[in-house]
Write a structure and sequence with these properties.
The chain is of the alpha/beta class. The chain has nine helices and eleven strands. Strand 5, helix 7 and strand 6 form a beta-alpha-beta unit. It binds nicotinamide-adenine-dinucleotide. The site of nicotinamide-adenine-dinucleotide (NAD) has 25 residues, from helix 9.
């Protein structure tokens, strides 16, 4: 039976660490603060933002919400970002995606000061990550590594196969694994013989958004499998269920797997808070 890596337990550990760091900053006279920018009224975004705000509150991080109407133009969002960049009481800026169609998300994300870019999407932070210079790392990949770290002490020479090459998950995960000197193969929708490539892996990180893509026969005995994918699927009885990219019930021969839900999901917010504290610490001790 594969070990189940519990993301909820790990997220609680990170929340605990974050709370300690917040208290340390408070003692030095700094209140870490995250500005959350929400443009429009997308219901899923509303849910994500209120979850992030609630978790900030629990951790003692101030969260400042900036809600803008769906018909806002790009300039008004950029003006807000400029003001937040200049505001010394704000340490992290998060722009909830997706943005309305008339706003270029790349222009907005690129406007965030790299030191406040707690999502780690700014080209400067992407460059720092790929050159091993530290900086703010995207939250989900950071969460993936914390889960892997709970079962792997030494990555050197391990074969890691990342399924998915997005800028948000696949590529940064690959960079973090390379940094630990794993041998990394990044695969995607055009990859040929994906099952054969997956079978070479000591570590599989599945971030395709393709429900149950990774079958038991794709996974070698003793591999560690991190399932990032989340797809909401309608069941025969009309109810919906969250399904990952991996057929977990076929993975008894793996060494460890993450469940969906309860695996990578809870780690993303935990890492967002820890990134906010990291930004506040860097501002406090430049
Ligand atoms: P994306 O759509 O931007 O990228 C998907 C990638 O997977 C692409 O590179 C594509 O080529 C590849 N891919 C798609 N289908 C494939 C297939 N059949 N075989 C091989 N490769 C395939 O998605 P994303 O933003 O990187 O997210 C990926 C998944 O992770 C989604 O299910 C998303 O909901 C989930 N996700 C979860 C969290 C979390 O907090 N748990 C955070 C971000 C994303």
């Amino acid at each position: 039976m594969a070990q189940l890596i519990d993301g909820r337990v790990m997220a609680r550990i990170i929340h605990g660490e974050t709370a300690v760091r917040v208290r340390r900053l408070n003692a030095e006279g700094t209140n870490p603060a995250l500005a959350v920018v929400l443009v429009g009224d997308d219901p899923a975004s509303e849910v994500y933002v209120s979850r992030k705000v609630a978790e900030c509150r629990k951790a003692g991080i101030t969260s400042v919400e900036h809600r803008m109407p769906a018909d806002s133009d790009e300039t008004s969002v950029l003006v807000l970002i400029d003001a937040l960049n200049e505001d010394p009481s704000i340490h992290g800026i998060l722009v909830q995606l997706p943005l309305p169609i008339q706003i270029n998300a790349t222009s907005v994300l690129d406007r965030i000061a790299p030191a406040k870019d707690v999502d780690g999407f700014h080209p400067v932070n992407v460059g720092r990550l790929s050159t091993g210079m530290g900086g703010l790392v995207p939250c989900t990949p950071l969460g993936v590594m914390r889960l892997l770290d709970s079962v792997i002490a030494d990555y050197r020479g391990l074969n890691a196969v990342v399924i998915g090459k997005s800028n948000i998950v696949g590529k940064p995960v690959a960079m973090l694994l390379l940094e630990r000197e794993a041998t990394v193969t990044v695969t995607h929708i055009q990859t040929r013989n994906l099952p054969d490539i997956a079978r070479t892996a000591d570590i599989i990180v599945a971030a395709a958004g393709a429900p149950l893509l990774v079958r038991g026969s794709w996974v070698k005995s003793g591999a560690v499998v991190i399932d990032v994918g989340i797809t909401r699927m309608v069941q025969a009885d009309g109810t919906t269920k969250l399904v990952g990219d991996c057929a977990t019930t076929e993975l008894d021969h793996a060494r460890a797997v993450t469940p969906v839900p309860g695996g990578v999901g809870p780690m993303t917010i935990a890492c967002l808070l820890s990134n906010t504290v990291q930004a506040a610490e860097a501002a406090q001790h430049p």
